[in-house]
């Protein structure tokens, strides 16, 4: 007798939400066991059908085009220089998407949410689907071993698709604005971290942050999930009450530092450095000092009431970060002063 699955069990198999499973049933894309009233049970044959479907190239022809190349078919968003990254990964024989992202960085990669992917007819799990620009593929070709193969692949993409002309600048990670809220995806060592800004306050999604800190588990199929029991335990031990926004839990900046102090994983220090040196300065455009062509940015905002929420240990960490940042600034100023002196001596010499 074949096994039947609940909507929740079915959702876990594909890392999608239970609500998405109900939506697929409503559309008729998944069949349920009949005559059970309001009880939902999904037969095992639908599991196999779903696996086959997720491996096929699904899309809406009016919004997505299929570009044929000698290495396989690549889906492209019509009217945009954006290709489905998983198609590119399969065509080039790369291990996974994050190998390309680690090589080229985040500037040439964008992300569609599950709902946005669904509107294009693209299959996506609960984390969404990644896209890459042709410029990103070109950059990857300049850094990979199989450069000739990738360059030929790019030529086929350009010839066979009517990509917008003159698009060479990095694409921006798509921000979704809801009222006074902006959200953007950041990637730390191959792990996605959702960061949102609500009325000027930066918030970090709890479980993606926990995964970035190494609190993860893997199922039999190799899929990674947040180790929620450990993450929740750290939150309770640290006395943190996360903010709730659109049904998701988020950490404020003070909460984030307290969470890292409690988690005590090997990734806490590099993650903290990434947040304070890369993420926050790129989001905050205040506290900048410009002298000639030298720009020095403060790692933290001017002291205000929000600092009253920090614990003593957090303040000590911030002081340490600021001192390290100051050392880097001083070294940069010294190097620029040496360069200025050399240039001025050239002018005095009659260059």
TrEMBL record:
Q: Which SMART domains match?
A: Bro-N
Domain Bro-N, which positions?
A: 182-287
Name the UniProt record assigns to this protein? Prophage antirepressor
């Amino acid at each position: 007798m074949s096994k039947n699955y609940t909507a929740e069990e079915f959702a876990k198999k594909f890392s999608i939400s239970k609500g998405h499973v109900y939506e697929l049933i409503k559309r008729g894309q998944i069949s349920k066991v009949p005559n059970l009233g309001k009880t939902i049970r999904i037969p095992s044959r639908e599991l196999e059908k779903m696996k086959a479907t997720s491996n096929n190239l699904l899309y809406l022809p009016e919004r997505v085009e299929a570009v044929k190349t000698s290495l396989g078919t690549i889906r492209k968003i019509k009217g945009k220089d954006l290709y489905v990254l998983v198609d590119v990964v399969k065509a080039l024989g790369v291990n996974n998407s994050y190998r390309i992202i680690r090589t080229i960085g985040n500037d040439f990669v964008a992300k569609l949410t599950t709902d946005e992917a669904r509107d294009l007819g693209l299959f996506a799990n609960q984390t969404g689907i990644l896209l890459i620009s042709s410029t990103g593929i070109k950059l990857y070709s300049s850094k990979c071993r199989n450069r000739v193969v990738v360059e030929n692949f790019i030529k086929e993409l350009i010839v066979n698709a009517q990509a917008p002309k003159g698009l060479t600048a990095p694409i921006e990670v798509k921000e979704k604005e809801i009222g006074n809220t902006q959200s953007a995806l950041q990637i730390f060592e191959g792990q996605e971290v959702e960061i949102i800004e609500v009325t000027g306050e930066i918030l970090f999604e709890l479980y993606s942050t926990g995964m970035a800190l190494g609190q993860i588990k893997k199922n039999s199929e190799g899929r990674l999930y947040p180790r929620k029991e450990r993450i929740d335990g750290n939150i309770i031990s640290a006395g943190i009450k996360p903010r709730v926004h659109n049904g998701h839990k988020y950490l404020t900046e003070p909460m984030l530092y307290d969470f890292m102090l409690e988690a005590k994983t090997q990734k806490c220090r590099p993650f903290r450095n990434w947040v304070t040196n890369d993420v926050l300065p790129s989001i905050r455009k205040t506290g900048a000092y410009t002298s000639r062509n030298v720009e020095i940015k403060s790692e933290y905002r001017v002291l205000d009431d929000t600092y009253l929420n920090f614990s003593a240990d957090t303040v000590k960490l911030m002081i340490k970060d600021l001192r390290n940042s100051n050392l880097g600034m001083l070294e940069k100023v010294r190097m620029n002063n040496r360069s200025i002196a050399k240039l001025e001596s050239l002018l005095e010499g009659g260059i």
